[in-house]
Specification:
6-stranded parallel beta sheet; elongated; Rossmann fold; alpha/beta; 364 residues; transferase
């Protein structure tokens, strides 16, 4: 079985990291030959090459240009895959399907976001594919509401390498790296700085939380177009001394075990790889009851769930966990077990592989 994967993201963020896990896992199977099409010079391309995966650089991003479809069509004809697996949006989820249809090769697409699409468009676009893989049940339900048939959409949850996040915290390094005091709880938000991640709601909750926990600090781990706006909000709310903007960090396995709590106040979220990483590190989590977040954050088990866009509920949930270290420790341990049991990389690879076999079964 030869599979051509298409990923047009340039950075090795959550979705692209899942593609790399899948490529590396598939490479362990003797009956599966994997190829990756990705932008020239991208981080995922370099990582895949380092793992021995055949990489085919794309000169165009996955945008709305018809040239993208032509380039992918030529690549499919040259590589000769049995199956095309499209992982990106950015236009690639349209043009990848079109190119595979032109080449007469069956294709499937992974859907990683829960952003709703017009039903007329969703039904037309996804009809290009033999299957749609949703990385959470929350996303699957969005697709079903948009008119896709139940047998056509398969849930295969994202995964995380939990062994990477099992190291202990180095408090001396952590405090020096982020200019933190020796005492006081530290909250982390691991997300792109974009509106739907909901950073502003935590900022609205912070004054009340600081009254209760005077030494509280917050790390915004990520980058994005909203940074300047959020920095202004921090200044206007007088939170300069307790909020740090760290930018994108590639050393999360070292950072996460040092956090007292991870907060994810997103308005929309497909699943949240950063939440899987946080859970694997043993951090309790407060997350919004949105998208696939409740599949990672089990209320009362490894964290608390709140209504999206509700700062008052954030104050209550965050305060409850920070005030009870024993509860936080129990929740952290439960999160580790949850990841091991339900979000294992080998299970994710096997789930995708089962879908491949279902698609190719008539011709196998």
């Amino acid at each position: 079985m030869k599979v051509l994967h298409i990923e047009t993201g340039r950075n090795l963020y959550g979705g692209a990291r899942q593609v790399l896990y899948l490529l590396e896992g598939s490479a362990q199977r003797e009956d599966c030959e994997s190829h990756l099409a990705c932008p020239a010079g991208s981080a995922i391309g370099q990582a895949a090459e380092d793992s021995g995966i055949a990489v085919h650089p794309l000169t165009r991003s996955g945008d709305l240009s018809l040239g993208m479809a032509l380039q992918l069509y030529r690549l499919i004809r040259r590589v000769g895959p049995d199956l095309v697996h499209v992982h990106s949006r950015r236009g690639a989820d349209l043009w990848g399907g079109v190119a595979a249809r032109w080449a007469g090769v069956p294709a499937l697409v992974s859907r990683r976001v829960d952003n709703p699409e017009p039903p007329w468009w969703a039904v037309r676009k996804y009809s290009l594919y033999e299957r749609v893989i949703a990385i959470s049940e929350g996303i699957r339900q969005v697709l079903l509401r948009e008119g896709l048939s139940a047998e056509y959409v398969v849930t295969v949850p994202s995964a995380v390498d939990s062994t990477q996040f099992s190291q202990p915290c180095d408090p001396g390094w952590f405090q020096a790296e982020f200019d933190l005091p020796a005492h006081g709880p530290v909250i982390g938000v691991i997300a792109q700085l974009i509106e739907r991640k909901g950073h502003t709601y935590l900022l609205q909750a912070l004054p009340a939380l600081r009254e209760r926990f005077p030494g509280l600090h917050v790390l915004f781990l990520g980058k994005g177009p909203l940074r300047e706006h959020l920095e202004r909000e921090v200044q206007e709310r007088g939170l300069d001394d307790c909020v740090r903007f760290t930018g994108f960090r590639s050393d999360l396995p070292r950072i996460l075990p040092c956090l007292d709590l991870v907060v994810h106040p997103a308005l929309m979220e497909g699943l949240g790889v950063s939440l899987l990483q946080a859970a694997a590190s043993g951090a309790p989590i407060v997350g919004s009851r949105a998208g696939g977040i409740p599949e990672v954050v089990r209320d009362g088990v490894n964290g608390r769930l709140v209504t999206p866009g509700a700062p008052d509920e954030l104050v209550e949930a965050v305060g409850e966990i920070l005030a009870a270290p024993d509860t936080a420790k129990r929740m952290g341990g439960a999160g580790r077990e949850l990841v091991k049991q339900e979000f294992d990389i080998s299970a994710m690879v096997a789930g995708n592989y089962r879908v491949y076999r279902e698609i190719l079964a008539p011709t196998a």
